[in-house]
Amino acid sequence: MKFEVLTIFPEVIECYLKHGVVGRALNKGIAEVKVYNLRDFTTDRHRKVDDYPYGGGAGMVMQIEPFYNALRHIKSDGIPRKVILLSPQGRRFSQRIAKEFYKEEKTLTLICGRYEGIDERIKAFVDEEISIGDYVLSGGELAALVIIDSVVRLIPGALGDELSAEEDSFMKGFLDYPHYTRPEEFEGMRVPDILLSGDHKKIALWRKKEALRNTLKNRPDLLKNLSAEDMKILKELCSEINK
Ligand SMILES: CN(C)c1ccccc1CNc1ccc(C(N)=O)cn1
Questions:
Q1: Is 207 annotated in the active site?
Q2: Catalytically annotated residue among 51, 128, 129, 168
């Protein structure tokens, strides 16, 4: 899986890519990220990337030319890509979309805006506009990193322990179950005995029930098309809560 990032702050992207799961995946060569500094695609002495907005108003707007020059340079290798603009106006990103991007196996070219945004004519060169959530950020870089991180985790071999990718219960559409590790007791708070029992069947059942409990509490909207087994656990849970 290949990613390309267009940004005026390449260091912001590069420093994140040195660490953790993504860092290891890049070192293993199962993913590749090329970061382009937009200023390298300017033609003036001051390497300007922004200008005053037509129609007036506060703030500056990013010019189209540097982005156009960068995209023309990048696309000159003729490899198929999906050019994505990160913006608050985009289609809402989700695990489902991360899977979509992963399966498509196209290079993802991520465009990061700053200032008040980018000249609207950028849309002529963009395949998709994506938002990571309903909030305004100072730049698209964090959103680009969210896309890279969530998609890289889907690549086989990216996560040390393969199972943890599958087990991400969010992948199965629910919120995650609680996790514990040593010490067994901390500040009077004990690890649930079931997790010390070694009874893997019971533990799996307990985890499913707790995932449903968390989902019911914080994201009831995710509780749709449940299997008969899950419905049974949910009913048990509700009768417990309503005791
Ligand atoms: C400066 N702004 C507001 C802007 C305007 C237009 C494009 C890019 C930006 C960069 N900022 C972003 C980017 C993404 C998200 C998101 N929710 O995915 C939030 N903010």
A1: no
A2: 168
